[in-house]
Amino acid sequence: QVQLVESGGGVVRPGGSLRLSCAASAFTFSTYGMHWVRQAPGKGLEWVAFIRYDEGYEYYADSVKGRFAISRDSSKNTVYLQMNSLRVEDTAVYYCAKGAWFDTWGQGTPVTVSS
Amino acid sequence: EIVLTQSPGTLSLSLGERATLSCRASQSVNSNYLAWYQQKPGQAPRLLIYGASSRATGIPDRFSGSGSGIDFTLTITRLEPEDFAVYYCQQYGNSPFTFGPGTKVDIK
Lengths: 115, 108
Known about the structure:
Number of helices of chain B: 0
Oligomer: heterodimer
Radius of gyration of chain B: 13 Å
Distance between the termini of chain B: 36 Å
Order of helices and strands of chain B: EEEEEEEEEE
Number of strands of chain B: 10
Strand content of chain A: over 45%
Strand content of chain B: over 45%
Largest sheet of chain B: 6 strands, mixed
Shape of chain B: globular
Structural class of chain B: mainly beta
Helix content of chain B: under 10%
Structural class of chain A: mainly beta
Distance between the termini of chain A: 40 Å
Shape of chain A: globular
Largest interface: A-B, 20 and 23 residues
């Protein structure tokens, strides 16, 4: 079945960097746009970034623009989120999601930014 | 940025009752690109409805979506035990692809 598996989360100091990965399987990865969404502890969902199926364009939430970068490798069926200049307020579970209407989600990977 | 407002914040209902959840947008949602998601504690969100009224694969027909423009509704006709959760609406027509703050449906 269609599956997304995130990895790469962890604990990092403010100002540090992390790269998240999302491995996709059981669908034609190269034909779908992919998103990252996050959820801070006890809070709602916040869309973070999107990359089109052909890497033709990317969109970012204002809260991460200039600090985060989304990319994809269709040879590995994987989408990435490079997170730089991390802040305490970036602490959240990060999910990847597939397609225009987010029809499949991964299980999430937790990121904690703390000194 | 399109801001989504959901009401009520919490809905307390009994098994078998009908739930009506509202989502209002600050401006018209492009092509009715409005989705609804269900999230249970410790789990990822699950897509219920897309395109304002199309049920996602495997979603029971007790879930239905309606609305257009700025006003949208998710209806659950007869609440089952597994339906008690938080529900989010989201617009995916224009970046940023914003979510509403959620409606919690809990057991009365």
